[in-house]
Design brief:
By secondary structure, the protein is an alpha/beta fold. The chain is 43% helix and 15% strand. The chain has one domain: Phosphoenolpyruvate-binding domains (TIM Barrel, Alpha-Beta Barrel), CATH 3.20.20. An eight-stranded parallel beta barrel has the order 1-2-3-4-5-6-7-8, surrounded by seven helices.
Length: 250
Amino acid sequence: MEIRPNRVKQKLQAGETAFVVGGIDDGDAIDSFGPNGWDGVWLEGEHGRVDAEEVSQLSRACDLWGLTSITRINRNDQNLIYRTLDRGSMGIVVPHVNTKAEAENVVAGGKFAPIGQRGMFTSRQGYGVDNYLEVANDQTSLIVLVEDIVAVQNLDEILTVDHIDVFFVAPSDLATSMGHIGNIQHPDVQSTIDGALKKIVDSGRTAGTLMTNETAEHYTSIGVRFAFTTVGAWISKGAKEFRERVAGTA
């Protein structure tokens, strides 16, 4: 048996856009979304309910559809990183990576030797894969969140760290760190986001950020190829439109 391919990683390595959805931290919801042909599911373990037990079940649901399971954890801890991978997640999102050393810590926890120092234990993804410890690094995604202004200031050094698949500029915390709580649309915040994304792209690395239907074209034009969105905006928009049409006010 061969290791399952990481669809998100493969598309990014081929220079294509990878489509990743969040807000469906439930096996039935993943099954419902599966036929839409996306590449990955973002499982929320920092702000959401996803824990070690649920990673196994949710990543198993993703596997059924060939979707890459990507889990955001709540701290930059090597043991937490590789435990989440051991439970079956195919990718890790690490918050508040503000320095080169912190980015290197992500790699150390997320990759087996000789690249890193991930604990030498198979994953749920490794069952039946005789050479899992040799091939897992090639199918494991590491994503770091650039979500503090200090990370933007240190971005040149952070971008020199190898084996990071995506440098993801996260708008809400970045706005807060700039003194604009809840105001992502502030011109200074938007300029900082765009500047960071352009720097990532210009360095030859892969950029990601939160997109909506309204902002997708803008970020795509900058060169963002890790296209992440959540179902919440779609649900709200659809619910509002339905009410308006029923009421005859659309």
